[in-house]
Amino acid sequence: WVLLAAAAWAGAGDGSDPPGVTQWPPAIQALSGQTVTLNCSFAARGVTVKTWLKDGAALDLSSPRYSGRVAQADAQTFRARGDATIHLSNLSVCDSGRYVCRVQPLGSAAALGRGTQVTVTHSCEKPGSS
């Protein structure tokens, strides 16, 4: 597994601010066909919604594009552990982009991670080569 994400804290955690969201590392390079893990954790209670954004647009993880390629924690783990991590498998060049984790607690503003820039290259190319 290739590890993804970017460290970020948002909100003061006093109940009135958005929750603290941590995403790491800030950038990753992967080969087509590999699996990556986009880590996202949050410190707030009562978070009811998580959304992953790619290049500013919400990902529809149930769409045919992602069908069978995304694994994530069940709803209970998501809420109990503050874990919004996803695993994206069988990468293609089209999966390249900036991924941002967004969580929203009940009655509060949404909070965003700082994002992870994912660069996927063809498996015949080595990451970092041009």
TrEMBL record:
<comment type="similarity">
    <text>Belongs to the natural cytotoxicity receptor (NCR) family.</text>
</comment>
<keyword id="KW-0393">Immunoglobulin domain</keyword>
<keyword id="KW-1003">Cell membrane</keyword>
<keyword id="KW-1133">Transmembrane helix</keyword>
<dbReference type="InterPro" id="IPR043226">
    <property type="entry name" value="NCR3"/>
</dbReference>
<keyword id="KW-0391">Immunity</keyword>
<keyword id="KW-0812">Transmembrane</keyword>
<dbReference type="Pfam" id="PF07686">
    <property type="entry name" value="V-set"/>
</dbReference>
<dbReference type="InterPro" id="IPR003599">
    <property type="entry name" value="Ig_sub"/>
</dbReference>
<feature type="signal peptide">
    <location>
        <begin position="1"/>
        <end position="15"/>
    </location>
</feature>
<feature type="domain" description="Ig-like">
    <location>
        <begin position="19"/>
        <end position="121"/>
    </location>
</feature>
<dbReference type="GO" id="GO:0002429">
    <property type="term" value="P:immune response-activating cell surface receptor signaling pathway"/>
</dbReference>
<keyword id="KW-0472">Membrane</keyword>
<dbReference type="InterPro" id="IPR036179">
    <property type="entry name" value="Ig-like_dom_sf"/>
</dbReference>
<protein>
    <recommendedName>
        <fullName>Natural cytotoxicity triggering receptor 3</fullName>
    </recommendedName>
</protein>
<dbReference type="InterPro" id="IPR007110">
    <property type="entry name" value="Ig-like_dom"/>
</dbReference>
<keyword id="KW-0732">Signal</keyword>
<dbReference type="InterPro" id="IPR003598">
    <property type="entry name" value="Ig_sub2"/>
</dbReference>
<dbReference type="InterPro" id="IPR013783">
    <property type="entry name" value="Ig-like_fold"/>
</dbReference>
<dbReference type="GO" id="GO:0030101">
    <property type="term" value="P:natural killer cell activation"/>
</dbReference>
<dbReference type="GO" id="GO:0045954">
    <property type="term" value="P:positive regulation of natural killer cell mediated cytotoxicity"/>
</dbReference>
<dbReference type="InterPro" id="IPR013106">
    <property type="entry name" value="Ig_V-set"/>
</dbReference>
<dbReference type="GO" id="GO:0005886">
    <property type="term" value="C:plasma membrane"/>
</dbReference>
<keyword id="KW-1015">Disulfide bond</keyword>
<keyword id="KW-0675">Receptor</keyword>
<keyword id="KW-0325">Glycoprotein</keyword>
